Amino acid sequence: MSGQHDSGALRQAQRDVKPALGARPANGAAALLTHPLLWTAILFVALPFVAGANPFKGNWSGFVGIATTMVIFALFASGFNLLFGHVGELSFGHAMFFTLGAYTTALYTAGFNVTVFGTAVSHGKGDNLFVALVLSLAVALLWAWVLARVVVPRSSGIYFSMITLAFAQVIYFVTFHWSELTGGEDGLQNITRPSVFGNAWLSSSDHFYWFCAICAFLALCLLHFILRSPFGSVLHAIRENKQRARFLGYDVDKYRVNAFVLSALFPAVAGWLWTYFQQAINPDAGSVEYSGNVVMMSMLGGVQTFLGPILGASIYYEIQNNVSQLTKYWEAWIGIVFVIVVLVGPRGIMGFLDDIRHYGAGTTFRRYFSRQARVELEMQEELPALDEPAATETAAP
C-alpha cells in the first residue's frame, strides 16, 4: 500500500464494508468458534465420511473420490470469489487458469516433444510434485498479469465479464486444436502421481484426499490472510464504492490488477491437484461449463463470505451425486435450487446464516420472505444512526 494514505483514509475504507457482510465482533472463545478456518478444517475432515451419502437409498457412507472433487473445487471457487465477491468483478473465464495449471502439470509430468516455428522443443518426464506446482503457478501468474494489464484498466462490469470469457475461449481453442502438444480432444492420459521423497504414498486414494485437503487448507489460510489484511479492506471499499475509494487516493486499477492476479493463482493450484487426481486432462477443463459452474457454486454458498464458495462447492457435488442417481436431468434440479436461492436469499446460504447471527432469526426470516419487511428494513439501515457521530467528516485523506 502506498505510503501517501494515512490511517484515517484506511479506516474510512474499512467502514465502507456493510456491517452485515462482516461478523459481529467476537472475542475469546466466541471468536475461535466462529472462525471460518476452523469450520473449513472441520468440513475437510468430515467430507470423506459424509460426501456422497445418499439418504434416498439409505447409504450413509462417504466416498473419498467425491470428497476430493469437493475440496479441489472449493479451492477453485474461493479463488474466483476473491475477485467476484470481494472486488465486485465477475469473470466468466477463470476456468482458463484452472486449465493452465492442469495442463502445465500434465506436460511436465508426462513430457512432450513438439515443433515450434520449425524448432524441435522437448521435455522428458518429470517426477517432482513441487516443481510441477511452481511451474503451474508461474504460467498462471504470467498469463494473469498480462491479461490484467490489458483488460482490467480498460473495462468493468459486463464488458469485463465478456472479455475474460473471450480470453478463456482462446485457451480452450489452443488446448483443443494443438493436438501435437495437448493431445487435442482426447487430452493427455495415464499421468502418474509422483512419489513423495521416494515413497508412492499418493497412489492411495485416501492418502491423496488428505494431501489435497492439506494443500487446499494452506491455500485458504493464505486467502484468509489476504482478505483480513489492509489490502483486503481496500478491495472491499472498491467493491462498495469505487469512486469513493478513488477519491480517498487509492489507485483503484492497481488494486484490481493485483486482485485479478491473486485470484488466478488459486484455480492454478486446483488445476495442479485436479491433474494428479484424474491422472488425465482434456480441454473440457477450460470450457465455459467449468467457468459457469464455479459462479453457481459461489452464489449458492454465498459470495462476499469466506465459507460460501467452500460450502457451495460441497453442496453442488452432493446434489449432483444424489440426484444423478434418480434422474438423468440432475442439472435441471441444480438449476431449480440455484433459482430458489438467488430469488429468496441473493447472498446465498452463508449470507442467510450470517444475517441470522447479525439480526436474529425473526428479523432475518421477515427480511427474506416478506418483500414489504425487506424494504422497510433496508430503509432503516440507510438512515444514519442517532448515537453515532458523522463518520464522513472524520475522513481526511
Automatic annotation (TrEMBL):
It is found in: Cell membrane. Its main location: membrane. Keywords: Cell membrane, Membrane, Transmembrane, Transmembrane helix. Pfam families: BPD_transp_2. The chain crosses the membrane at residues 28-51, 63-84, 96-117, 129-151, 158-178, 208-227, 255-274, 294-317, 329-349. It comes from the Bacteria. InterPro entries: ABC_transp_permease (IPR001851), LivM-like (IPR043428). GO terms for molecular function: branched-chain amino acid transmembrane transporter activity. It is a multi-pass membrane protein. One of its GO terms (cellular component) is plasma membrane. This is Branched-chain amino acid ABC transporter permease. It comes from Vulcanimicrobium alpinum. The lineage of its organism: Bacteria, Bacillati, Vulcanimicrobiota, Vulcanimicrobiia, Vulcanimicrobiales.
